[in-house]
Amino acid sequence: MSRFEIQNPYLLFLGDAPDQLAAKTANGVKVWRPDWCLGQFRFPACKADLGLPDMTIEEAAAAGVKTVILGVANRGGFIPDAWIVELVKALNLGMDIASGLHTRITTIPALKEAAEKNGRKLFDVRHPTRDYPVASGVPRTGKRLLTVGTDVSVGKMFTTLAIEKEMRDRGMNADFRATGQTGIFIAGSGLSVDAVIADFISGSIEWLAPENSEDHWDLIEGQGSLYNVSYSGVTLGLIHGAQSDALVMCHEIGRPHMRGLPDYEVPAIPTAMDTILHMAKMVNSDVKFVGVSLNTSNVTAEEAEAFKKKTAKETGLPVVDPLKDGVAPIVDNIVASY
């Protein structure tokens, strides 16, 4: 298998999730691919609810579900026996299983045996299924956009998906390229770049977004941040592997410090853009920023509007909150620039 290729429609397996946050991954799939999600499976103790029809495993099979998605954080880093009983049942009824958990479902004997017996697939999307080449840096055809951030968890995946939707609504030739487990479930394919051995990160992205037709856009989901010392290595690998034509800067207004790093300040947007652009020009001298995407959820509408105007003046770029404003101005700029 060259990359994860997960068949839909899905049953979102919530198990005994203790709260709504534990189902964050499953909720992302439901929001962005509602037509792929036929139902949810919940034990009586489950405290999460995605608003989908509750289904038993048997009902899911009868409805035509192709893959059961484990889109929930489990307790203690292991899969309970009660989950395994239901997942074996799913395999016996002809469904595949895809997991975003740290626990590898491919190492659970009962699941492995049932999958082999029924000719079904088990996907551990956090873990690579193949070896990747060392990056070559050789220019390739097609166009690529990468979302980058002043910090981690500032809306890079959401922004990338919003741009894909806007482009496709306009009839443009564009594909979202997932680099994390939630994105893989949403796209149905991709790779979890933070699990790739460091020497091969850039090469894995060259492979994920290879040569394509001149009118095609690969929209690559960003990870980490050059300014977050915990995850900057992954980000630099993505920047060099993407060989981007376009970049979109993502930022959360009002964040007091780098996430998980109270001694580090969040950089100013223009400062971060200068640093990132310097790194990106190593592999594509024509790369440029085409927009700024803001998460304004922690500030008032007035504060958000003032920040947008200030940032637009500083950068000369369209500045939006993709959730509240949409990303049409950014796509307009892309269309006008390429």
TrEMBL record:
Record field: transmembrane: none
Domain D-glutamate N-acetyltransferase-like N-terminal: 50-128
Superkingdom as given in the UniProt entry: Bacteria
Domain D-glutamate N-acetyltransferase-like C-terminal: 134-331
UniProt-listed Pfam families: DUF1611, DUF1611_N
NCBIfam families documented for this protein: DgcN
Listed name of the protein: Uncharacterized conserved protein, NAD-dependent epimerase/dehydratase family
Record organism: Thalassobaculum litoreum DSM 18839
